[in-house]
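so im writing up the methods section and need the NADPH azoreductase record in one place, dumping it here so i stop losing it
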Amino acid sequence: MKPKILVFSGSTRKGSYNKMLAKLVSKHLTHAKADVTTICLSDYPLPLYDGDLEENVGIPENVFKLRALIEAHHGIFIACPEYNSSITPLLKNTLDWISRIQLPDEEPLQVFQKSVYAVGGATPGVYGSMRGLLHLRTVLEMSLGCLVLPEMISINFAAKAFDENGDLTKAHHAKRMQKLVERFVKEASHVKLQDN
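--- predicted struct ---
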């Protein structure tokens, strides 16, 4: 089976290293025979989560669109920047909003537990988004119940980590990328979507 994989970055900044990483992961996944969909969260703007807003106005339409995208894919890859040793407000807000949808006859957070997840990150500093990735794993695994692969791609000194074609310049980064992609495609191939 050709797995369908959704890829996005927790940053929408122009020139974002994590958008570059998401693009590169998409390319590698496509070469590995996955059916890849890459999105940018700026195309799905959301207000800051507020319980009163949800009660008075309801859940924004873009939340339902993002949830539908998750439901339609066997695997989800998130490129996670690191802000103050944690994940971006944009990414956290997106996950918080999606977690608020519970359809009739559905267990809480069930949508997050149907796919397999993989994560990676890139930063200009020495840690390569590792602290942000650990926080993201905590949110995904402990709070949302996601299955997250142990393999991660952590790109440090990101300003010099990508060449002019967007490929990785260091062999150890490229090796980690290949290992993650191979495992990700294998595990996503075993996921059964509701409509399949």
